[in-house]
Amino acid sequence: MEKEPSIITIFGGGGDLTWRKLIPALYNLYLEQKLPPQFAVILVDGKAITEPQMLTHLQKGVSQFSAGKLNPSEWKTFSENIHYLKGDFKKPETYKKLNQTSKDLQKKWNQKAHTIFYMATPPSLFGVIPHYLQQEGMSQDLEYNRLVCEKPIGYDLETAKSLNQSLNSCFDESQVFRIDHYLGKETVQNILAFRFANPLFEPVWNRRYIDYITITVGEAVGVEERGGYYDHAGALRDMVQNHLMQLLCLVGMEPMLSFDANEIRNKKVDVLNAVREISPDKVHESAVRGQYYEGRINGKKVPGFRDEDGVAPDSQTDTFVALKFFIDNWRWQGVPFYMRTGKRMEKRASEISIHFRAVPHHSFPPEASLNWMPARLIISIQPVEGITLRFQAKYPGPEMHLRAADMIFNYQNEFHTRIPEAYETLLADILENNQTLFMRSDQIEASWKLLTPILEMWKKSPPHDFPNYPAGTWGPDAANNLLAQEGHSWPHPTDLDH
Ligand code: BG6
Known about the structure:
The chain has helices at 16-31, 51-65, 72-79, 92-109, 129-135, 157-170, 186-196, 227-233, 235-252, 261-274, 283-286, 411-415, 422-432, 441-460, 477-484, and strands at 6-11, 39-45, 82-86, 114-119, 145-149, 176-178, 210-218, 287-290, 292-293, 295-297, 300-302, 320-326, 336-342, 349-356, 376-382, 386-395, 401-410, 469-470. It is built from 15 helices and 18 strands. The model has no long low-confidence stretch (mean pLDDT 95). The strands form 4 sheets. Strands 8-12-13-7-14-15-16-17 form an 8-stranded mixed β-sheet, with helices on both faces. Strands 3-2-1-4-5-6 form a 6-stranded parallel β-sheet. A two-stranded parallel sheet has the order 9-18.
């Protein structure tokens, strides 16, 4: 069946996200014929530039960031569907013009179009834009009008609740697509496939066989050009509240009954509701914060956080977080889930490690098991994309010596196909009106509910030791102690190379 026409309006169309991610993703979808034959992209922004200037700028973005090669004739036909509408987000005239443009296009196509409103703007506008859309009558059609919201959704539980209320006063929840781009990553979606399309692992996916789980999302980059934003957010808000909590949900959730969007989202919310809340007096036992000072990454000297543009010289903002959670249900009782994320780590490496319990009885002679270690399943999210099962094998030779060996699944080697960018998948799903990979309001609030007490406690007792880790490392020592006190350890960073 031919796809119905769609008009994608991007508020903040002159911004970085549009340039780096959204237009390159739409261009790839166009090349792969995943856009409807009749589509338009309307970029709304206050920038005083002409449409041709905007298109030249976007073309440069596509040639720099798009996976599909920039082909001048394809770009020409694609870009004929892009329109620039200069306007103030806070003036009703902007929305009147937008409505008119949208009506004109639908008249030209002689068909009703799906209208998608994408807020790629600072969060201060998330409460404003939907109201103007509603006033202009562009939000009421449950099937045809959609709203897309980028993170951050709120600054804490209270602000997230009031933002959700405000969004839902203009658009029904079934029309709202809150983006967490991690959910668009193939390796993240594959967690569900791996767990629930194979009968092999699910029977051991519980407290009987699993000792602990670590989730690492390490970045080598600093705050890039976003020092101003980041200094007000910090790692807990920027990464944990959304991306890491999503990973926790996917690893911890119960099997879904069907692939229905709400069914999957219900199962994820169940996980968050079962996570034991960290009371204020326990924050220091379960949460570690860090901030980097200057150091070296790949032999190159990099500045400390406080020396980055837009960051206060005495900033107390966390650029690293490590946390310990427990999930209070039958499956996970007593199994610690540790997560850590940070800027300026030794390298970019994100992985989930399932650390299995030791064998109940050591039957091998002691000299056989000098290098013995419990089995581990490593789900590599990026830049390595795949899954590794690390187990004990007999090392060749006359004696019985055990050593770790790997069974490796690597996306590139296995499938020989291009792995789509997260934004391609997410935009295609929005066009298809499929909310599976998007965050529902209750999930956002459940996540903030767990993290807000930590933020409040941290605010009450500012760190005494910031900055406390050199760039190019895996964070402060306290992050290791968090695990060591339970006899656990983070997987050694070199392991992340497998
Ligand atoms: C964003 C954060 O959500 O995710 C950034 O705001 C971070 O600070 C980015 O760098 C990481 O995304 P990825 O896909 O590169 O892991």
